[in-house]
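ugh finaly. both done.
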Amino acid sequence: MDDQHHDEFLRACSEGNLELAKQHQEQVSLGTTEFLQDAFVGAISKKQVAMIDYLLGVCPDDFTSRIPDPVLLQAIDAGSQVYALFIRKDASAARRSFGHMGDALALAVMRNDEGLVRLLLDNGASPTESKLFFKPTSDVARGAQNIDKGITKMLNEHESNHREDRGWVAKLKAWMK
């Protein structure tokens, strides 16, 4: 791989310059995880939404079927507009676990990012299955002083709605039909 094209492609990603990225894309190999990771991190760090969308469209399926954790962690830091692109490409990103760090929902709650919490809940994240400090994220949020009350309320409502869907209320509704 030509280092000049490599560097120019990465610069284009960071700057959000789609024209330049397309020019250099043919000269670089998008098949290496490290190179793609660098391209995404550059684009995400500057919140280059159009570039991230472009990269998701041109990178190999084996990359997007399991987007590397460092890329998704950077996307969480960038917020809901950026993370939504990854969920659109891979719905499981809404429920991705990052091992001892927790999962996407836990990290969004810790960041007090109400928009990202809403996005994750709307796309399948569960406040009772999500773990923060080995406890359900919703329980930790209720007991934490520094978590925004709007986020706590959102988690409680989501938890309550889904508890009803699976519990005795759902059985009663089914029986009454």
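ok and the 2nd:
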Amino acid sequence: MEISLISNSDNDPMIWNNGVYLYMPKDVIFLNLAVGYAKDIDTALVEIKGISFEPSKTKEGQTAIFRWTEAESVVFDENGDLCIWQIVYRLGATFHVNKFIKSDNIKYGISYSENYKL
């Protein structure tokens, strides 16, 4: 996914910016999801209904704001200026599925899709 800059303040994608992410997602209509890294893997083409960004959380559920210095490396600090942001996809309909079934060392590929109006 590509992102586009909407602010000239700081180009660091990890900047905290008081909880406002500096980038906007490009329009994405579909996402091709895959399971695993093998050559023949299950995949699904799904609709994207929306994309947003949210800050990561610590194990305790707090927003993971931190500061970074050469001497200390990463230090969680509620007054820090950095945060790792997560991309949140809101998924819609499944448009196409490729399923691979392995039986007696023979792989069978099954592919199906529904007729949807876009």
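summary for the 2nd one i guess: Strands lie at 3-5, 23-25, 30-34, 43-55, 65-69, 73-76, 82-83, 85-103, 106-113.
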